[in-house]
Amino acid sequence: MELSDNTLQILKNFSGINQNILIKQGSQLKTISEARTVLAGAKVIEEFPTNFGIYDLNEFIGVLSLVDAPRLRFEDSCVIVNDSTGRSKVKYFFSSEDTLTTPQKEITMPGADVKFTLTNNILNKIKRAAATLGHEEVSISNKDNVLSLSVVETSNSTSNTFSIDIDGEFDQSKNFNFILSIGNLKILPGDYDVEISSRLISQFSHTSPDLSVQYWIALEKTSTFS
After folding, report:
1. How far apart are CA 190 and CA 207, in angstroms?
2. What is the rounded end-to-end Cα distance, in angstroms, of the chain?
3. Which residues have a Cβ under 8 Å from the Cβ of 184 and sit 6 or more positions away?
4. Predicted pLDDT of residue 87
5. What is the pTM of this model?
C-alpha cells in the first residue's frame, strides 16, 4: 500500500490535534484532541486492512520520509515500510489501543442556528489578527442583522478587536454570540461550510471534492444565544 499525498496531508493535520491515533480497518480516519474539544474525521482513498495504533504520529510520518516512495505492508503487530527497490525498510510496531486517546462515539450534529462559508482567505485574516492583537478567541455574532466574525478577548470589554462581516444564514430575530477558541481551529487550509448550534457545537466541512474531511469543534461556555 502507498499513501496518497492527500492522506499524508490529513495525517499531518491530525497530528496537530492529537499526537496519537488509532487507524481502523477501512477508509475512515478519526482523531480527537486530549481535551475532547476537537473531533476530526476524514474519508481517504486507501483501504487499511487492519486496525493499528500509532502513539507518535509525527514520528510515524517521519519514518515514511526515511525511504523513497514508501510502501506499507501490514503484519500482526507492525507495519513494514519498504522503499521502491525493496532494499531499505523500517519495521514500525503498533501501539496498544489502551494507550491512545480515541473517539468513543459518533457526533450527530444538532440543527444549525447559523450557517456560513468560511473561506481560506478569511480564516487567514482571523489568524493573523489574533497573532497581532494577542487574542485567542473569535466571536460569531448577529450585529444589526449582519453576521460578524470578530477576533476578541471576551474577558476584557475594552480590548482591541478585529471584525469582518460575511454572508450567512441565521434567524435575524435571534441574538447570539458564539465563541470559538482560535487554538481549536487546527484545520486544513481551504474553504469550509460551517454550521453552528446553540448546543455549543460547530461543524466545519471542507468544500474540496478531493478532501473529504470534517471537524467538530466545541464552542466556549461563554457563548450566548437568545
Report:
1. 8
2. 52
3. 33, 37, 38, 217, 218
4. 84
5. 0.93
Grid cell locating 220: 466556549
Which residue type is seen at 184? N
44 Cβ neighbours under 8 A, 6+ residues apart: 4, 6, 7, 10, 27, 28, 29, 212
Locate 211 and state its grid cell: 478532501
DSSP code, position 95: B
Q: Could you tell me which of 123, 135, 128 has the C-alpha nearest to residue 160?
A: 135
Give the closest residue to 193 by CA, choosing from 174, 225, 215: 215
Q: Is the pLDDT of residue 84 over 90?
A: no
Q: Inform me whether the pLDDT recorded for 114 exceeds 90.
A: yes
**In this structure, are residues 158 and 143 in contact, taking their beta carbons and an 8 Å threshold?**
no
CA distances from 199 to 96, 113, 156, 195 (A): 34, 9, 25, 12
Cα 106 → chain centroid: 15
